[in-house]
Amino acid sequence: AALTVRFLTRRFIGEYGDMEFIYSHSLTVDGREILFHIWDVPYSQADEGSSEEKRIQWADSFVLVYSICDRASFNILPLKIQFIKATKEGMSQEKVPIVIVGNKRDLQHQRVVSSEEGRLLALSLDCGFYEVSAAE
């Protein structure tokens, strides 16, 4: 997601509608250089079938971002995560790393999804959880 790209590349990725981007970035972790390839895919209702499966097969880990101000973006997460797990873990016994990120933490006055809901969903689906603000 744009948040991950912004963190890793230190660049702001503006609103870009339904476009997909692949970003590459290298980072040194514990003295080892690691090359990240980030496939930033905005959610759309058209995401289904073989194109989504290809994206899932391509990736080693997943960051699913929802808006704390948009209940629909949160409600779609369980189905997306189940699809990812069925696609990735069905082929191997390894657990796929998935993190759920609630964005727009700076817009508390417009919040419709509580932090507790996000934490409970992540716990129930065995995912990591964070709340952030891309604006900050």
UniProtKB/TrEMBL annotation:
Gene3D superfamilies: P-loop containing nucleotide triphosphate hydrolases. The keyword Secreted does not apply. This is small monomeric GTPase. It comes from Nothocercus julius. GO terms for molecular function: G protein activity; GTP binding. SUPFAM superfamilies: P-loop containing nucleoside triphosphate hydrolases. PROSITE patterns: RAB, RAS. It holds the Pfam family Ras. InterPro entries: P-loop_NTPase (IPR027417), Ras-related_GTPase (IPR051065), Small_GTPase (IPR001806). It catalyses: GTP + H2O = GDP + phosphate + H(+).
